[in-house]
């Protein structure tokens, strides 16, 4: 009985730690999205969470450490949205375009746009930010492009350059959506341009033997 009680106590404490960590990330996401990283004070953040500064430092060594966790959460949410949209049995081109649209739609969320695209590269530095992006959204972009190559939709030449150009273009459109009251027309326009861009990358027809 004592062993069961001790195990239950350890489990409860672990669950409490997980809940407090998740709460800090949720509150920090809201504050960073609203006020930006530099204008967010930790005192106000922990007060909003109903926790102490000691509880914060139990989970995160610094404000940047907390921001890294918030950024990672945003990266994962966007990647999940892209994966859901690009999943299924549709042709590779349809799935690729659906994934790109999902990225833009997810970026309408101020938490994603401000944290992921505005403050992320500034706070963490370009290299660290790029590492996180490469493991999530950029990786999915590369997978989608390779599927287009395999399907014969686009040429395989200079694929790394194509990926870099598309990534930059999609991020720029995502940033611009924050200034739009109605983002859907802007997203529609971006998708039309993307379709034309892909058309220009069509694989050359093989000569008939």
Q: What's the gist of this structure?
A:
With 209 residues, the protein is an all-alpha fold. It has 10 helices and no strands. The model is unreliable at 4-9 (pLDDT under 50).
Order of helices and strands: HHHHHHHHHH
Overall mean pLDDT: 90
Largest sheet, strands/sense/barrel? none
Radius of gyration: 21 Å
Number of domains: 2
The CATH superfamily name of the largest domain is Tetracycline Repressor, domain 2
Count of helical segments? 10
Q: What overall geometry do the principal axes of the alpha carbons give? A: elongated
Q: Which fold does the CATH topology of the largest domain refer to?
A: Tetracycline Repressor, domain 2
- Low-pLDDT regions: 4-9
CATH architecture of the largest domain: Orthogonal Bundle
Strands, total number: 0
Strand percent estimate: under 5%
Distance between the termini: 80 Å
How helix-rich are the residues, as a percent range?
A: over 70%
DNA-binding region: 41-60
Protein name: AcrR family transcriptional regulator
Keywords: DNA-binding, Transcription, Transcription regulation
GO molecular function: DNA-binding transcription factor activity; transcription cis-regulatory region binding
Characterise the protein shown here:
This protein is an all-alpha fold and 209 residues long. It has 2 domains: 9-60, Homeodomain-like (Arc Repressor Mutant, subunit A); 68-201, Tetracycline Repressor, domain 2 (Orthogonal Bundle). Helix content is 77%, strand content 0%. It has helices spanning 2-35, 42-49, 53-59, 63-86, 92-106, 110-124, 126-134, 137-150, 159-176, 183-199. The longest helix is centred in the first third of the chain and has 34 residues, at 2-35.
